[in-house]
Amino acid sequence: MNLGIDTFLSASRLWWLLAVGGLLASYVVLQFVRRRDTIRFTNVALLDRLAPRRPGWRRHLVAGLHLMALAALVLAFARPAGEVRVPRQRATIMLTLDTSLSMKATDVDPTRIDAAKKAAEAFVRSIPPKINVGLVSFDTGARFNVNPTTDHDAVVQGIRALELHEGTSIGDAVDVALDAIARIPKAGDGRPAPAAIVLLSDGTTTVGKETAAAIPDAQKANVPVSTIAYGTPDGYIDIDVDGSGRLTRVPVPVDAQALEELAKGTGGTAFRAESAEDLGAVYQQLGSAIGYDTETKETTDSWVGLGLAVLGIGSVLSLVLLQRVP
User: pLDDT tens, 160-218?
Assistant: First the structure.
């Protein structure tokens, strides 16, 4: 039962609450009048035989419930409405993940890539079933892993199969995701379905189109890119730089500024995540924002149901406690 109220569609009808207030005031006045008349009846013994005392709380409880029921029905009459989350229809989310070698860093337990895969799977499973989800990965190049589909299990399998390679091509990844979105059939009125890109990276562009160069393309397509700058400033990996077999420790800090500029330039939101818990929270927030629309829904039925329920309870208590139906 949704009882949330953000507005009333027929607010002028709330004036009927004054009538309920008038009934409450009349009830209170009658209690004082009854007490005054009782005091005037001086033969107390005879009064006890004619009108045995009963706990006053019983009749007050019944009266209070009936007044509450009337108030709830008045609110229903004024057509209350509240905001509710509604799953988007025909929307597309392109999940775009960094698969560069820097994702082997262990500053995020157990590794950046393992934590990223787990969080991405949870994100995909939280998305409403009718929303298309696609997967793009990028390293030395950007590629489709899964075309936009409502088969979210296929996307999860694609995430699990991701492998790491050299290089980071953030700008190219945005273009590949935009290409996938552009191929989605338009609605009957000719308008494209709403779409968004969620891009996670732990580094900076090293090959292909620069990150900022992808902003005009996303703006033209009217597709926001939300970015997640992933990892800590202390992240590093050990790699064989010169092929000698000797490992060299290489720092792999995330370029948060470039990702933030990409998000702001395309109308998306920029996030930072330095742990698996941070990443999970970011994806949860993104799922709520991208996967759902907020609509105003009338909640009259709920308030009518509440009023009738309270009225029914009051009637039953009146019958049990006072041996009469009000």
Answer: 999 999 999 999 999 999 999 998 887 666 677 789 999 999 989 999 999 999 999 99
pLDDT recorded at residue 14: 86
Structure tokens at 126: 């939280």
Between CA 211 and CA 221 the distance in angstroms is 16
Give residue 183's identity as a one-letter amino acid code: R
Q: Which of 118, 91, 8 is nearest to 292 (CA)?
A: 91
Bond preceding residue 110 cis, omega within 30 of 0: yes
CA distances for 32 relative to 27, 35, 36, 88, 221, angstroms: 9, 5, 6, 58, 73
Which residues, including other chains, have CB under 8 Å from residue 14's CB and lie 6 or more apart? 8, 74, 75, 78
Q: Which residues contact 231 (CB under 8 A, 6 or more apart)?
A: 102, 105, 107, 108, 112, 202, 252, 253, 254, 273, 274
Task: State pLDDT tens for residues 65-112.
Answer: 888 888 888 888 888 887 776 655 668 899 999 999 999 999 999 999
Kindly report the pTM of this predicted structure: 0.66
Q: Is 249 helix (H, G, I), strand (E, B) or coil?
A: strand
- Spatial CB neighbours of 205, under 8 Å, sequence gap ≥ 6: 168, 169, 170, 171, 211, 255, 258
Residue 226: C-alpha distances to residues 21, 114, 126, 270 (Å)? 51, 21, 17, 6
- Going by the DSSP 8-state scheme, the letter that residue 52 receives in this structure is -
